[in-house]
Amino acid sequence: MFELLAYDRESKARRARLTTAHGIIDTPAFMPVGTQGSVKGVSPRELRELDAQIILGNTYHLFVRPGLDVIKHFGGLHNFMNWDGPILTDSGGYQIFSLAKLRKITEDGVEFQNHIDGARAFISPEIAMEIQAALGGDIVMALDECVPYPCEYDYAAQSAEMTTRWAKRCKAVASAVFSGESSTRSSRAPDALGTAHTTARQLLFGIVQGSTFEDLRKQSAQAIAELDFDGYAIGGVSVGEPEEEMMRAVEAAEPFSPGDKPRYAMGLGTPPQLLEMIARGMDMFDCVLPTRLARNGTAFTDTGTLNLKNAEFALDKRPIEENCTCDACREFSRGYIRHLIKAEEILGLRLITLHNLHFYLNLMNRARIEIERGTFDQFRKAFVADYKTREAMRVE
Amino acid sequence: MFELLAYDRESKARRARLTTAHGIIDTPAFMPVGTQGSVKGVSPRELRELDAQIILGNTYHLFVRPGLDVIKHFGGLHNFMNWDGPILTDSGGYQIFSLAKLRKITEDGVEFQNHIDGARAFISPEIAMEIQAALGGDIVMALDECVPYPCEYDYAAQSAEMTTRWAKRCKAVASAVFSGESSTRSSRAPDALGTAHTTARQLLFGIVQGSTFEDLRKQSAQAIAELDFDGYAIGGVSVGEPEEEMMRAVEAAEPFSPGDKPRYAMGLGTPPQLLEMIARGMDMFDCVLPTRLARNGTAFTDTGTLNLKNAEFALDKRPIEENCTCDACREFSRGYIRHLIKAEEILGLRLITLHNLHFYLNLMNRARIEIERGTFDQFRKAFVADYKTREAMRVE
């Protein structure tokens, strides 16, 4: 169930609430990325304290290691990692196309060798659904081909059409399961189902592709919308294209992605990009920046990023960000955190990770409040201008 | 103040309580090692939740990085790292002798190049005291020379005598400070004092050396005891010598280390070794094993260590140790932790570190209770026998 609670008058931003088997997600929402069954550097308890309402699990990584048998043995990903809130699993496609080796893509699916031990595997739309059923996520994604940037028009067009046919096959699997016609699936992988996930319905999102071509984005969005998913994702963005191209790709797809369903802009982005995406009607986001940059000593603030490795912070008694309510800012100084990062102490990256996740989650909370108040557009413009100006000054 | 609360009748074990400027330490006590201003992998909040009553800070590491100026700027180590419980700082000697390069030891002190950037530095007994005054630890250690194993008798004898002379100079600095005659120190390093630590008295412990030679251990213990310290440490143990030699070194020194003061066996050891040391009259311990082995996937249990990387744990739904009350054991399975370690996820080493520190701290708590009950010796014998037997079986 997706309840729309408020709209912004100046933009396409909306405030809504998505109900899943493991709880409610207030949107716009940010989903911390739990790549291998752990959001890097933080514990499930810390995620709860950060008020994270949903996390993302990467199907490809979990499929490769520890493997499906292990996760099924533990009764699904929630039990395995001790996270009882909502989980969204991706289809595995993105990592197959970015990490795996010796890929062979056919209409049937993708054959590949994983990047850990080189073992061969094959994933089809049906298998992607079965794997995600076994993981037991609350939201699962259709298998898509994510083309790189830049991409030739003809390839992007053919690929987007195949992604639509794959989406149709994923939808068919989900429909069969929820109407009880699971016999065809059972013959394929008798053990994949039948665990924790069978009691509650998994929401299935389709994915719009089309690279940077507006007409392809439009066609893909229309075709995916016709399949009637529980939500609509925009994939193939933030893959190296200029920010303007990314915005245009989303703008092209958005009008054809049903407004009464959640819209998920995949794999992005910076804080200003998230607000710009919200203004363009997007509701959900996932991004590794807060955790990945933290491990390099980079912290997010309202006025851009700080690299805490810099010598200027050695004697700085201030928190990462004044008035921030995260544990790292309430208890520790920039100078101490700088020391930890320079000395390669794990606590350093833990503290910046906590702060950065708090920053992203809190930015979504602020966006929700501003939408409710009818002041989102001013907030977005002021935030983006201030962030970009000061970030630029800092980089000089 | 050191209050002796109970003695074991079958051994030299005692249960006591040491009062410091930042709080009480119940002994026998284990001190987690905060090498570079952070106990590796855990936060101060987690240390408090683990009921750690005191942590150790390594003077050498902090002197090299971030450097004294930084820590003084933040008002001492407690403020810098946000730990308001007791801290013991070592003298820096051990790391100078084990990590630094191009050491030149003279009667005056040690010249060395640090292992990080090769910068030259000189530490004398007086300077070691000044550095520790600036760090602001509740317990500080006299500068000693820690000789390697094996060590020739003549060198060990001369070194132990010099360590005694250095101890006398450290004691003289402390006596001057607390009688107000700090003019000689101020002339050496005017900024070293005058911060957080001046309000409360720092306890100063002397260190017994003498390598593996019983007569030298006895002579060193007698000479150090004559200087009247607040506590007595046994150094130069657990440096590669056989366990029997270590036990004999401690047994030789103990009768000459005043019984009304805390006794600290430095830098050890395994869980059975700690209980054996308690039975030999030792009160305080520090050791990197719980944190260091955790980073390698090794967990401590009553029946020996488990290497959680082993394939046998992949499907193991049990906690690291049944009935353990630590957060790692209450919330996570061996199988999940194994996955995290194999996937090099930080949460894996965090969880094992938490468990291992809990194990060591709880072992001391159990020892204290057994001493109070008059059942320590049975407890020790049963624990040691079971631990060693099962550990041996596991290794086979």
List the keywords.
homodimer, 396 residues, alpha/beta, nine-stranded parallel β-sheet, three-stranded antiparallel β-sheet, 16 helices, 17 strands, globular
- What's the β-strand tally of chain A? 17
Helix content of chain A: 40-55%
Content-based structural category of chain A: alpha/beta
Mean pLDDT of chain A: 93
Major sheet of chain A: size, sense and barrel closure? Answer: 9 strands, parallel
Strand content of chain A: 15-25%
Give the largest interface pair and sizes. A-B, 39 and 39 residues
Residue windows where pLDDT falls under 50 for at least 5 positions of chain A: 183-199
Counting DSSP H or I runs of 4 or more residues, the number of helices of chain A is 16
**Oligomeric state, counting identical vs distinct chains:** homodimer
Q: Walk across the major sheet of chain A and give the strand order.
A: 4-15-14-13-12-11-7-6-5
Rg of chain A is 21 Å
Shape of chain A: globular
Distance between the termini of chain A: 47 Å
